Amino acid sequence: MAPSSWSLVFGLTFASVALAATYSVADTYIGQAFLNDFSLQAIADPTHGRVNYVNAATAAKANLTFASSTNFIARADFTTTLSASGPGRNSVRLMSNKQYELGTVLVANLNHMPEGCGTWPAFWTVGANWPNNGEIDIIEGVNNVGNNQGTLHTSPGCTMPSSRSQTGTAFQNDCNTAVNGNAGCGVGFGSNSFGPSFNANGGGWYAMEMTADFVKIWFWARGSSVPSDVSGGSSSVNTSNWGTPVAFFPNTSCSLSSHFGPQNIIINLTFCGDWAGSVYGSDNCPSTCTGEHAYQLSMAEVLKAA
Ligand SMILES: *[C@@H]1O[C@H](CO)[C@@H](O)[C@H](O)[C@H]1NC(C)=O
Ligand SMILES: *[C@@H]1O[C@H](CO)[C@@H](O)[C@H](O)[C@H]1NC(C)=O
Ligand SMILES: *[C@@H]1O[C@H](CO)[C@@H](O)[C@H](O)[C@H]1NC(C)=O
Ligand SMILES: *[C@@H]1O[C@H](CO)[C@@H](O)[C@H](O)[C@H]1NC(C)=O
């Protein structure tokens, strides 16, 4: 796999898939495929960001999306000085045309993610009719923090046990979007998992496995001990060998099959807004909303249950 790439691993929704942790490739996206198989959504930001999501033609013309044979880059405009009273910064929001059911593993290999004061990038999945079919935030953070947050957002009746087998730190255990301003049941990741420190370290790999029994998220920083089926762009993976996840969301007190429908993958980058804006000052950011902002990724593969 190319170094600045990401991949998707997909498993079919067999009843046994939660027990069988082996998946094989079903779909692969590389370079231009991100433009063919994802749609750019020129929509208003529901989280009130200072952003202007543009369509595919505008993004291509402004080089906000760029595909080579091995890489895909998605970014926001970084040359325009904005007026405080005018529209927000041009940026992109990509959604996969395909949906993925429980029984899916997604592996992302990124060289670089957006960074800078005011940035609020996210790499996540969401079902239809939010929040009834769930949301899984795999990569999310704001400003120049160094630690990722992995979070589930659901309809009422989905909580996580306070004690569970994960290396990350739980912030809140109720996933209900109506609780605590839609904070969700988030888990904090370790160093180099987000922002400038992630980029300075050369990026890394994220993986998410979702089944009827659990959702798990792993992160391996570049240069760390990463499973070969993750780093190698393997045609099959065995998640049983990946060790304790950073974030573990078991179905102990949450029926994942009723809170999570088929998921679209979304890659977005907004600025300021409900989260980045509210903690902007406390993250030692200056008075204006600017930032650097490219996702550098290039490959996606989708694998099915073996
Ligand atoms: C961007 O991603 C975050 C992911 O958590 C989401 O909360 C937010 O609504 C997204 N904004 C848009 C416009 O997609
Ligand atoms: C578009 O972006 C790519 C990747 O950053 C860069 O190599 C290329 O030169 C840019 N094209 C233009 C016309 O600026
Ligand atoms: C997956 O890995 C586990 C743990 O190492 C092992 O027990 C199992 O046999 C593996 N499955 C396959 C199909 O190789
Ligand atoms: C958890 O998942 C298992 C296997 O799919 C299922 O048998 C069990 O009923 C689920 N528990 C809850 C609380 O949904």
From TrEMBL:
The keyword Iron-sulfur does not apply. Residues 1-20 form the signal peptide. Residues 21-284 form the GH16 domain. This is GH16 domain-containing protein. PANTHER family: GLYCOSIDASE C21B10.07-RELATED (PTHR10963:SF24), GLYCOSYL HYDROLASE-RELATED (PTHR10963). Keywords: Signal. GO terms for molecular function: hydrolase activity, hydrolyzing O-glycosyl compounds. GO terms for biological process: glucan catabolic process. It comes from Collybiopsis confluens. SUPFAM superfamilies: Concanavalin A-like lectins/glucanases.
